[in-house]
Model the fold of this input.
Amino acid sequence: MSRFIVEGGRRLGGRLKIQGAKNSALPILAATVAVGRPCVIHNCPMLTDIEATLSILKSLGCEVHRSGNSVSVDSSRMSFTEIPDSLMREMRSSIIFLGALISRTGEASVCAPGGCDIGMRPIDLHLFAMEKLGVNLVEEHGHIKCRCQKTTGAKITLSFPSVGATENVILASLRCSGTTTIINAAREPEIVDLARFLNSCGARISGAGESTVTIEGVDRLFPTQYTVMPDRIAACTYMTAAAVTGSDILLEDVAPHHLAPILQCFEQSGCRINVSANRLRLTSSGGLRSIGTIRTMPYPGFPTDCQALIMTMASVSEGTTVICENIFENRFRHASELNRMGANISVHDKIAIVNGVRRLQGASVCAHDLRAGAALTVAGLCAEGTTTVENVHFIDRGYEALEKSLTFIGAKIKRID
Ligand code: UD1
Done:
């Protein structure tokens, strides 16, 4: 198991290119199964979750080649429709293969997906939607076996705008007879990216990014090349790193409009932000102010994936910040780790009250999930002395060598294997 050793108290500076979005690349790679023709996906970050997705594609019989950040997938001679349990359990997003397989072959067999332990994370909405599309589901011995000659277009109202369920419905409906309409669809930018990729293959998806998405079934899809959008959560991570260390950094290859829900927090805390087409500059004097109350919500609300990072920032901001986690029920485990570093955070069910302290102190802390790992690493950057962050394998799920990027902009951090 790897750990990071972080020497705190250094100013950061310079330029950094933001990686491609993990949460976009994962469903797009799964979608290549549905396309059934050769696809080349550019700007695919080097992450363990991406490697796990490529392993699933290979296990299904797809031809997969990676050259740097470009991945080619040819699923035209794919021969299997069952995903091995060990691969399904590696990450939550493996469930997206359900819709992709059904669309392509009319069959899929999967077990419950794994992923970071941040709450119950059921898949009831995915299964409800598949049934609405005419898919026959049989659950036996922990497996869900799905069968359907051709999905039938339907009107599907999601009781919650689930990102994964929206993606699964889009994928399962690509070749449906008639039209599928998703009401209360998730509006995250990653949904728009998936729809753009699929439309570039000849799919007919409209309304992605809005609450109502329509998919008209088509008979054929075509080969394509596509570039994954920038990772908005990675951008937020480096912004937080600069904010808490009183630094000035320029992020390149960002999509500033995707960051709208979080920019306000940084401005409220006293950071200066300048954006141009695909760049963002953040300047912080280090004297941060409390950001009042933050509530995580589906997009365009404040993203749950940035909650841990903002908690680190609130820990060293003057005044009290209240954080309300509305998306996942077990996503405050970083609070007690931050307290080990001298933060003053109390958690009451889904509310965390953060009383800012002047400075954190280096300590040995443990990441319990991906974004918590990033938040603790950032906390180490502004802490007095040395911080050890255990469980770096969680961080590697979503960041392309986080320690190298941070070193590149002036941090002192090393990985110990
Ligand atoms: C995606 C992101 C994840 C992000 C989350 C919310 C990927 C690979 N992951 O996860 O980083 O934190 O969106 O923005 O894109 N739910 C149900 N039943 C379901 C499905 C979801 O109750 O069938 C609940 C979940 O338990 C959770 C909430 O809905 O409480 C949001 O989940 P969802 O939007 O589906 O998140 P994911 O797609 O898993």
